[in-house]
Amino acid sequence: MDPGGGCPHAANARLLARGAVTPVVLPGEVRAMAVLGHDALKEFLAHPDVAKNARHFTALQAGEIADGWPLKTFATVQGMTTADGADHRRLRSLMGKAFTARRVEELRPYVVELTSRLLDGLEAAALEDGVVDLRTHFALPLPMGVICELLGVDEVHHDRLHHLSNQIVATDIGPAEAMAANREMVEVLSEVAAARTADPGDDLTSAMIAAREESGDRFSPHELIGTLMLTIIAGHETTLNLITNAVRALCAHRDQLDLVLSGGASWSDVVEETLRWDSPVSYFPFRYPTRDLTLDGTLIPRGTPVLAGYSAAGRDTRAHGPDAARFDITRTGESRHLSLGHGAHYCMGAPLARLESTTALEQLFDRFPALDLAVPEPELPRHASFVGNSVRRLPVRLKA
Description:
By secondary structure, the chain is α+β, with helices and mostly antiparallel strands. The radius of gyration is 21 Å and the shape is globular.
């Protein structure tokens, strides 16, 4: 895997031509596997003999993984994404209360108001030629503001948490940087937890602290911080990438944008096709077979770290047809994508991500229907990670 990231689709196509499951080498010469095919990935994500807890990671348990390994946080952080069975159900139960349909619907006025406020500031932030970085001034502060509102995180922490999230999901940084980012993230979130302990509110962090204090064993201190870390990273990075990728796709496919603006398709259609065509997460670490597992004819040895190849699965021609590489918001199908997961670890924040993305796109193009990229697509700087899949900046011209 290229630690520098970049656009994954050409490499994905080459790998998919070889099969739905392939061996890969991670940074630090760590041997792993990636599941790329849509059907194989769907089977793998829900397989009863596949675990998330790093006690099943053979090389890690043997002491072969260095402390500064850039992907180590994905394996060792304590929280829902690294828990199995009863532990996973215990940690997920309280979080589920924050992401019910009712709670998400209650957030709608806040999402609409924040979106409108950010759009008001876009023209003010634009340069004399009308160009503004949409990612910095719109696609980022919207999901970061919403997830921090949900968690009760003060605005003073937002920029720092985004920077640290970027460091944690990066795959091209050195051991010292990786360890420093993790330490600082824990420090910032410990401050957040201390603030909510001293002054509880109607937020998820306060609820998690109350549950821990009332029942003793609901959330350990490490699980609380780990859950906050994962919720902040997943709660804003993926939606940030989703909004960014959707805007890029629509600018490159004006016929699809015209179809939505004329009422021939919905903003929900745009979001779902973007999730398939340009998944906000390319390869997500890790899962581990608890026994030797044969998937689509390929053996994955027990204890191997496995990447879930969401961006590859979204363009798998065997699942999506020979035109899988085409962005088409009228595309139909029983299972359009796996980009929000599948099985027990399906993304709890999916309804919120969909609400934020559809609201953002609808209001953005209603306000600026002629919005377009200010530089050619190939010149947009890519993420330095094979985990996140997007660009680091999105300069757009708001008006023709």
